[in-house]
Design goal:
Elements (H helix, E strand, L loop, with lengths): L1 H16 L14 E10 L2 E4 L2 E5 L2 E2 L7 E2 L5 E2 L1 H13 L3 E11 L2 E8 L2 E2 H7 L4 E2 L13 H11 L18 H6 L14 E5 L5 E4 L18 E3 L2 H6 L3 E2 L3
Parallel strand pairs: 3-8, 12-14
Antiparallel strand pairs: 1-2, 1-7, 2-3, 4-10, 5-6, 7-8, 8-9, 11-12, 11-13
Amino acid sequence: MPKLAAVLALIVLALAVAPLPDGVEGAQGGARLSGPVTVIDGDTIEVAGARIRIHGIDSPERAGTCRDHDGSPWRCGDWATAEMRGLTEGRRVDCTDLGERTHGRVVERCTLDGQDLAALAIGRGLARACPRHARNHPHSRGYEAAERAAIRAGAGIFRGGVPEPAGFCLPREAAQTAPKIRAAPASGECTIKGNINRSGERIHHLPGQTHYDRTRIDTRSGERWFCSEAEARAAGWRRARR
């Protein structure tokens, strides 16, 4: 573990001293924002009244679940939010607008006490790296190294395995060839509903079962469609009892 801590420290230091981009294309690109933090979730914060999406990472949604050491589900989204709050809330961060917007949020690179906040989050297992972003923003290339170290250590969301990456984090060519998780079946073949209940348990429902018609799938919270029961079981979903 001391060796791992040293590796993470070097990664974070390298990212911290990399120059922040001042000429990024897009509205307000390069603008600076500083102030105390209010945490929304594992990758979203508010600074000086602005809602910021931390660049280069993806943290589980608040209601999201991950696999634990024993394969059971746990509420990693709530955990990641609490950990980000403990790391940053009430403290001052310095952020640079990268000229991008997503769902009403400004995408920014932030530092905390001179350290890259995204790298800190990945190293603690609060989030995955988004390799697609590294092509446009060289400062984020080290995030994948931080993620590999966190995976080896079984930190946070990686303690029961590696969660599936978000589609928007994949390089474009990989995203085009990766299996698609559909919000609704495009044909009659993928009709099994993978639902996550309030306890975080993953349950799949087959057509004709009692709760199939009333079950709604929200892919933003980690729910998904399956084309076969074997696929659902392999992903960690159990069959509904009725």
